[in-house]
């Protein structure tokens, strides 16, 4: 290495060191600036996600129309499928707000109002069950049940239920709205999100075409092909996972709610919603949610709680063997042991949204690394041969 190359290396090292030092010194300001940029871009990110959902439904409508009715994929028919996709999403949202939410609020109010009585009845049931187990029975008899069923808890539950169904929640939402309105109107953000999603949906061909042109103009041919392959993989996995998982959660929630209504299990709509949300977490999310629901149902009626668990197991067997393979399938291609890692990382970073996003992200990384490993192994074999 000659003197000129050494001088360049030292200059780069000094610049890199200064950059790291400035980054550490101004770390809080950089994070604050990035947060401001993220807040400003939030409507566009949500709009992109909403357009992605619209596009999944539109593509499925178009695919089944071609398959069942032998339609041709024309611009007019694609526009009609986009409009139908938007109508379907807003119809589901309207039905959820107008029908499901009032029933869920009523179930929560009933649960909170009856909670002290439920605790007392559950305590009496446990005393009867543990008659032959002296240690547990004596322990239960020595418990101060009044601490769980006195008027204090009753008053707290009534206050909470009153807060949920009357003015308390409105005051909270009003406070949130006043905070958001100081920077950017909440209604304006929703409007921008919806309009931007519509623009993306109806101009997706132009967006794809311009993105391809941009990549072809600035990337070498080899890098362009790799980037295109990665983008196709990301779109395929996110489409399969997000669309399939949300559909599967909706089906499972509907089955649990319907089964609970048929068997006259209390809080049918509430337990259906909780199990549906729990199903967003693969492998054990729905089961944990079902056990939590069964516990609260059992405090009202232990037999009903046991009935709910048996019903859920039967529904999950049917759903896992017949519905899930057709709705979600194995398109994500991610081993279960890595799913647990992705769930843990996603939950710690961004909660339930992190869980939903991190599984397909980690699946993309896993498949790309697998492809690279196979390619390198094949090169090694060719060299050794």
Outline the structure in words.
- It is a single chain.
- The protein is an all-alpha fold and 385 residues long.
- Helix content is 88%, strand content 0%.
- The protein is built from 15 helices and no strands.
- The longest helix is centred in the last third of the chain and has 49 residues.
- It starts with a helix and ends with a helix.
User: Mean pLDDT score, rounded?
Assistant: 77
Strand content: under 5%
Round the Cα radius of gyration to an integer and report it: 28 Å
Instruction: Kindly report how far apart the N and C termini lie.
Output: 37 Å
Portion of residues within helices: over 70%
Structural class call reads mainly alpha
Q: How many beta-strand segments?
A: 0
| Shape category | extended
SSE blueprint:
Blueprint: H1 3-25, H2 27-69, H3 75-113, H4 115-129, H5 134-141, H6 146-149, H7 151-165, H8 167-181, H9 186-202, H10 204-218, H11 221-262, H12 268-278, H13 285-300, H14 302-327, H15 336-384
């Amino acid at each position: 290495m000659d003197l000129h190359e050494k001088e360049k290396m030292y200059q780069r090292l000094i610049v890199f060191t200064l950059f790291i030092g400035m980054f550490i010194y101004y770390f809080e300001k950089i994070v604050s600036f990035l947060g401001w940029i993220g807040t400003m871009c939030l409507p566009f990110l949500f709009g992109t996600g909403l357009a992605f959902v619209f596009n999944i439904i539109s593509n499925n409508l178009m695919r089944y129309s071609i398959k069942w009715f032998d339609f041709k994929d024309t611009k007019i028919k694609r526009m009609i499928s986009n409009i139908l996709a938007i109508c379907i999403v807003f119809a589901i949202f309207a039905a959820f707000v107008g029908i499901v939410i009032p029933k869920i609020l009523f179930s929560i109010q009933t649960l909170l109002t009856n909670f002290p009585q439920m605790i007392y009845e559950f305590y009496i049931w446990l005393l009867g069950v543990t008659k032959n187990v002296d240690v547990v029975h004596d322990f239960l008899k020595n418990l101060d049940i009044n601490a769980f069923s006195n008027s204090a808890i009753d008053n707290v539950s009534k206050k909470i239920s009153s807060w949920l169904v009357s003015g308390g929640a409105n005051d909270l939402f009003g406070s949130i709205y006043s905070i958001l309105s100081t920077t950017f109107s909440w209604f304006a953000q929703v409007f921008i999100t919806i309009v931007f999603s519509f623009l993306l949906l109806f101009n997706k061909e132009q967006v794809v075409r311009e993105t391809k042109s941009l990549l072809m103009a600035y990337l070498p041919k080899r890098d362009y092909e790799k980037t295109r392959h990665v983008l196709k993989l990301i779109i395929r996995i996110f489409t399969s996972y997000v669309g399939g998982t949300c559909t599967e959660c909706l089906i499972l929630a509907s089955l649990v709610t319907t089964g609970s209504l048929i068997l006259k299990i209390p809080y049918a709509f509430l337990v259906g919603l909780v199990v549906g949300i729990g199903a967003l977490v693969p492998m054990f999310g729905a089961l944990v949610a079902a056990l939590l629901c069964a516990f609260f149902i059992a405090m009202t009626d232990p037999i009903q709680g046991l009935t709910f668990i048996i019903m859920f197991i039967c529904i999950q067997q049917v759903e896992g063997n017949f519905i899930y393979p057709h709705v979600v399938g194995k398109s994500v291609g991610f081993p279960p042991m890595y799913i647990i890692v992705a769930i843990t990382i996603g939950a710690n970073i961004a909660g339930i949204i992190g869980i939903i996003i991190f599984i397909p992200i980690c699946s993309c990384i896993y498949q790309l690394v697998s492809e690279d490993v196979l390619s390198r192994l094949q090169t090694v074999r060719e060299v050794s041969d």
